[in-house]
Amino acid sequence: MGPMVVLGSITADRRASSVEFLRRYVDGTLDTAGVDAEDVRLVVSELGTNAVTHGSGERVGLFVAANDDCVRVEVTDGGGGSPRERRAEAEDEGGRGLMIVTAVAEHWGVRRDERGTTVWAEVARRPR
Description:
By secondary structure, the protein is of the alpha+beta class. It has 3 helices and 5 strands. It has a 5-stranded antiparallel sheet. This is ATP-binding protein. It comes from Actinomadura fulvescens.
């Protein structure tokens, strides 16, 4: 696996409408790089929704990088939460986000620092 190349980063207000903005950003960024964005878009949607719903702070950030093998996305909010996968019941309207990320991503994890909580995921790179 070669070194990661930064493809872009952006911040948005931490509100529900920003999730679509983050999806569109990753679509454009990966299109320019010639990478299929379908799985990455799904991961960004789930991580962005979690940051908006469960995070804190006024902003949410998205970082996108790639190498020959994978695309790495990181979503950061100002919170100090502990994102974790959980089992949603059939009648639950939510709670499946990190289960979806686990199913789609090769790896994912959580990092906390002075900026807040970052959830990252690496998705296998597919050419467009």
